[in-house]
Specification:
Elements (H helix, E strand, L loop, with lengths): L10 H12 L3 H12 L4 H26 L8 H8 L2 H36 L8 H20 L1 H14 L1 H17 L4 H7 L8 H16 L2 H4 L9 H30 L2 H7 L3 H10 L1 H26 L2 H6 L7 H4 L10 H23 L3 H4 L9 H20 L5 H26 L2 H18 L8
Helix pairs in contact: 1-12, 2-10, 3-10, 3-12, 3-21, 4-5, 4-20, 5-6, 5-15, 5-18, 5-20, 5-22, 6-7, 6-15, 6-18, 7-15, 8-12, 9-12, 10-21, 13-14, 14-15, 20-21
């Protein structure tokens, strides 16, 4: 007999859960990308973090209001089903299962592999070579094995790693800022005053940087699914999401400023993949800085663990509804591990396919031969979700007649504007590569559309 989830969490716990879900390893990866995208313009980088954060807050609040109307809703697919319809929900789920989740998961396998090699080899680390990709594949498979063979252990690791990943962020945010203001060279003040590359196009720099923040802020949609376990969810969830999101934006910006207090922007940009490690070493000393950098790697692995838990179940979620290819096979559950083994294996294979694509398009010389198809799978799939949210927001304005005007109209309109901004920014920043991505997106969605009908059980 199924039991209803108990209302056991208050506002403080809910805020902590939101922060734990959203804060991940993207900030370590994308802080460097944002710095280079803006040509070392620290103020524009902070502005991009603010814009990306505001869009997250508005969209999260809108979904939170919607969640209070549909308490059983859990995740973006369920939101799409309950507002727009089953077919739209399935198509969103198909995209999440085949593109979105595998792309993010493989990126979070490559990131700790990259940082591991930086930890071992320093500036000599080859983050584009076969050793890095082999290590990334190892992390991917190892995380998959833990998730599938011991789901309970995976859950316990997730809780521990949530705490660990905040340590380097908070330490650099506080100590790095103090270090940057207190040292004799005035590094932080100088980084605010100067721009490393003033020739960079302001519009391109801002849009490119905002696109990068999408990766770091991703996860807020998952945070809206905790509504069923909150006391007084109608008030608690919107407050938790807003306050939690504000804390996240503050942590990210303060970390970004802390990094700028460690070393000059020009040096940070020139150091490339070793930039973050060198920044920690400057502030905390080589030994302690290296130790803290290990926490960065653990943080990445923790995020990978959480993503793998979801990626192995996405196709099962569709199959349990009788949709998608081979629903009977992908819907099977192992009686010993209580895991969907076929869905998990296919999810892992999709991660491997997208990892191979990432290697070819972004890390080695093959990308030049791929032309418009050499797009960045760590950003465009994430931003694609924003246009997919728009029909949900429109349906909300049309059907949720019991909501007050702000919740029914103002919040969804602001969320639509934010979603359109993200889509425009991606189109402007990635330019011709967007065409290649849209072709791949159309093909994948067409395949999914062919399996949209619910198959009758035998």
């Amino acid at each position: 007999m199924s039991q209803k989830l108990q209302k056991k969490y208050g506002l403080f716990t809910a805020i902590a859960m939101v922060i734990g879900i959203v804060v991940g390893s993207g900030v370590f990866f994308k802080a460097e990308v944002i710095l280079n995208a803006t040509g070392g313009n620290l103020k524009m980088g902070i502005l991009s973090w603010l814009i990306g954060g505001l869009i997250m807050i508005v969209c999260a609040y809108t979904f939170a209001v919607l969640a209070t109307r549909h308490e059983k809703v859990n995740g973006v697919v369920a939101y799409a089903e309950s507002t727009v319809g089953d077919t739209y929900g399935y198509m969103v789920g198909w995209f999440v299962a085949t593109v979105y989740a595998p792309c993010i998961t493989m990126a979070l396998a490559w990131l700790p592999a990259r940082y591991t090699l930086v930890l071992i080899y320093g500036a000599e680390a080859d983050i584009t070579g076969g050793l890095c990709m082999t290590l990334a594949l190892f992390y991917l498979v190892a995380t998959y094995a833990i998730s599938c063979l011991s789901p309970i252990l995976a859950g316990k690791l997730q809780v521990a790693e949530t705490v660990i990943k905040l340590i380097p962020l908070l330490l650099m945010a506080v100590v790095g800022t103090i270090y940057g203001l207190a040292n004799d060279n005035g590094v932080l003040v100088e980084n605010f005053r100067t721009v490393v590359d003033p020739s960079a196009s302001p519009a391109f720099a801002l849009f490119r940087a905002v696109c990068a923040t999408a990766f770091a802020y991703e996860g807020w949609i998952v945070a809206t699914s905790i509504n069923a376990e909150l006391k007084d969810a109608k008030k608690t969830l919107p407050r938790a999401l807003i306050l939690g999101s504000v804390v996240i934006v503050a942590i990210y910006i303060l970390y970004y400023i802390g990094i700028a207090g460690a070393v000059p922007n020009a040096e940070m940009m020139a150091d490339g993949q070793t930039g973050a490690k060198n920044a920690f070493a400057h502030v905390f000393g080589r030994i302690m800085g290296t130790g803290i950098f290990v926490f960065v790697i653990i943080s990445c692995l923790g995020t990978l663990n959480g993503l793998m838990i979801g990626t192995t179940r996405n196709l099962y979620s569709l199959a349990s509804r009788g949709r998608g290819p081979a629903p009977k096979m992908l819907g099977q559950i192992d009686e010993h591990t209580n895991m969907p083994p076929n869905s998990a294996v296919l999810g892992l294979l999709l991660c491997a396919v997208w990892m191979l694509f990432f290697y070819c398009s972004q890390l080695c010389g093959i990308g030049a031969k791929m032309g418009i198809f050499a797009f960045d799978p760590t950003e465009l799939p994430i931003i694609t979700l924003y246009p997919l949210y728009i029909p949900i927001f429109i349906s909300m304005m049309k059907n949720e007649k019991e909501l007050k005007p702000f919740g029914r109209f103002v919040a969804p309109v602001l969320a639509i504007i934010g979603s359109l901004f993200m889509a425009f920014a991606a189109g402007y920043a990635h330019k011709e590569k967007v065409i290649g991505y849209m072709i791949v997106f159309a093909v994948v969605m067409a395949i999914g559309f062919a399996f949209r009908k619910v198959k009758k059980k035998a």
